[in-house]
Amino acid sequence: MSMKQTPALDAARRQMRPGAIVRDGFLGADRRPLVDILDADDAAVKRLGYTHAALAGRMRELRAAGARGLGEAVCVPPHFEVRVDSVRGKLPCPFGHPGLYPKTNITVKNLAQGGRAITYTDLGIHMIEEHGFYEGRGARFRADPAELARILEPPRA
Amino acid sequence: MLMAFLIAVGVVCAINTALALLMVAAEAFIADYGACTITVNGERKLAVEGGQSLLSTLKAERIFIPSACGGRGSCGLCKCRVTGGAGNPLPTEEPWLSAEEKAQGVRLSCQVRVKGDLAIVIPAELFNVVQYTTRVTAIRDLTHDIRELRLRLLEPAAIRFAAGQFIQFEVPPYDLTDEPVYRAYSVASPPSVRGEIELEIRYVPEGICTTYVHRHLKVGDAVTINGPYGDFRLRDGEREIIFIAGGSGMAPIKSILYDMREKGIRRKATYFFGAKALRDLFLLDEMRAMEKALPAFRFVPALSAPEAADDWSGERGLITEVVGRRVPDASAMEAYLCGSPLMIDACIEVLKRKGLAEDRIFYDKFA
Amino acid sequence: MPESMNLFAVFFSAVFTGNILLTNYLGMCSFLGASREVKTALGLGTAVVFVMAATGALNWLIYCLVLVPLDLVYLRFIVFIVVIAAFVQVVEMIIERTSERLHAALGIFLPLITVNCAIMGASLFMVIRNYGLGEAFAYGTGSGLGWALAILAMAGIRQKMAKARVPRGLEGAGITLIIAGIMALAFVGFNGMLSAGP
């Protein structure tokens, strides 16, 4: 993927500012142009030997397994602990994709790695799957591809 | 010399005055949208002054559309059908509207400016929504993270609502927010108590309203609320009832139960309440007393992960599992759910499997 | 040269050869800020044309009928800017009334027209060059059109450029200024047209 900063990306970036959709925004302290954030993460995912769809698929799989706990942590074989928490309200996608995404936080702990954990959201899964966007550095729900690959242990394509 | 000075000053003043007059004239002819008529639901006509947002214009007419962000266009809640007089949605609205909603003329009322006559469609219940000033008379910790708040209504001094409805709590600007925001909470007290309401609020880390209530609010503080909203209420009939709740989802069910007791509604009813451990259970005595007052009512608390010290002999497991075990056939029943969206979705699944038609499952829809 | 011909020459040179943006580099801030999208550029350009044409004529009237006879020419800066500020307010009201989308798209750039130096510049140039009322109006309109043309062209180029790989250090204002320079060279090329003339 070699995208360039287009007006559509400019519009998405505006939606990512603090206060537009979520209070703290989607970019954290990241000052890079959106296109560079997307390119860098895209390259990182390729280096790791995955695709966006594969990572998102794994995130979805663990979410489904954890949702059975109704807000409490659930053990998911072989060595994961998943907690899916939901609160009222829905969020739109900053890229202008139609539809609203429920406010769901998924926390996955990898017990084989001493409890190393990552937290992501329903909207986060969508943004990775459809837009290859993992949020900016320092953002509250930044899902770093390397961390995702390490903690979620997705099967390689 | 003096003359030249006076002329210079006079000329500048004259020019500025002329321009000021021009601006006043422009303001009067261009920026004055004059008297506009908002036709609500095809019947009620409101004569309003144009120029403001639809949300605040309606608020001035004492019609409150639920909104969480207070008009910044960042919560997407203040939706309202505008059937005539407004153009297409603005770029600021588009993320919040589905294609279907756009086709129906749904807009965010905080982004629509009243510039001429408008026709809008809102739920009739919004006509009954009123803004109240209140004072906190009691704060009680129900569990380690759920607080009960008692608010005495000052102006107006009494509220009329149906058991199960919710109100909006106005959070004034403080550490976490620069502008007032609004959050919805179900009323836990019964409708017969008209001068006071009870709310149950669970602490959510970083939550703007819950942090305010748990960390800042004190007895004696003033609180502004508006309401009531919602169509979560007991339906008439004789069907057996299943209530399911978790956490602060207790509030509307408690209000409904007290209302049933006062009105002598003796329908068969079972209330499944899910919690993690004993320290997350509350109002057990009240619920036991309710079982005595309503002979056909059973309270079934269930713990998903009781601690060893809890010495728990009641139901164990997730609330969905408990409902699955205890309810053999739900096809003739009616269900009322309140809790996290995740819990509601999972419970709807279980109840459907038990033969309950989806149109007889009711839950808080203010998500 | 007949007067109408002269008016045309003033107008033409204001649009092309003496383009206020590209030859005098006036009105740069909004030019850089609002030239990301053709739609926004068109809206801002239209507003600038209107304000420049109207304030050009109005400022000429005030200058020649009030300031010169009363020997108050030194007040022209303050008077011109006040007239421009008042006019921008009126334009903002008109846009707000007629097109909410355009109003939302222009955002802060609309009030910023007040301090758009191109507009002040146009009023000052017409005084320096001793234009008559007709010429002042032609010059104001022409300058506005020229500015609009330049920002439109730039917006078009920047939209295309979004698909090009720009060296990191030149991204944003850097490459935009280089493009503005090349555009200026192209506009200066119109010079020959005017002097060779029919």
Topology:
The complex is a heterotrimer of chains A (157), B (367) and C (198).
Chain A: H1 7-15, H2 34-48, H3 52-67, E1 74-76, E2 80-92, E3 100-110, E4 116-121, H4 122-131, H5 145-152
Antiparallel strand pairs in A: 1-2, 2-3, 3-4
Helix pairs in contact in A: 3-4, 3-5
Chain B: H1 2-31, E1 35-40, E2 44-49, H2 54-60, E3 79-84, H3 99-103, E4 106-108, E5 118-121, E6 130-141, E7 146-155, E8 166-171, E9 181-186, E10 196-202, H4 208-216, E11 222-229, E12 240-246, H5 250-263, E13 269-275, H6 284-293, E14 297-303, E15 315-316, H7 319-326, E16 333-338, H8 341-353, E17 361-363
Chain C: H1 3-15, H2 28-33, H3 38-67, H4 76-98, H5 100-106, H6 109-112, H7 117-128, H8 133-161, H9 173-188, H10 191-196
Helix pairs in contact in C: 1-8, 3-4, 3-7, 3-8, 4-7, 7-8
Give me the side-by-side strand order of the main sheet of chain A.
Answer: 1-2-3-4
Instruction: Classify the secondary structure makeup of chain B into a structural class.
Output: alpha/beta
Q: What is the number of domains of chain B?
A: 3
State the helix count of chain B.
Answer: 8
| Strand count of chain B | 17
What is the C-level CATH assignment of the largest domain in chain B?
A: Alpha Beta
The portion of residues assigned to helices of chain B is: 25-40%
Q: Order of SSEs of chain B, N→C?
A: HEEHEHEEEEEEEHEEHEHEEHEHE
What count of domains describes the coordinates of chain A?
1
The CATH homologous superfamily of the largest domain in chain B is named: Nucleotide-binding domain of ferredoxin-NADP reductase (FNR) module
Shape category of chain B: elongated
The third-level CATH topology of the largest domain in chain B is Rossmann fold
- Helical residues, percent of chain A: 25-40%
> What average pLDDT do the residues of chain A reach?
87
Counted beta strands of chain A: 4
**Measured distance between first and last alpha carbons of chain B:** 74 Å
Largest interface, Cβ cutoff 8 Å: A-B, 28 and 29 residues
| N/C terminus separation of chain A | 18 Å
Broad structural category of chain A: alpha+beta
Helix-strand string of chain A: HHHEEEEHH
Largest sheet of chain B: 6 strands, antiparallel
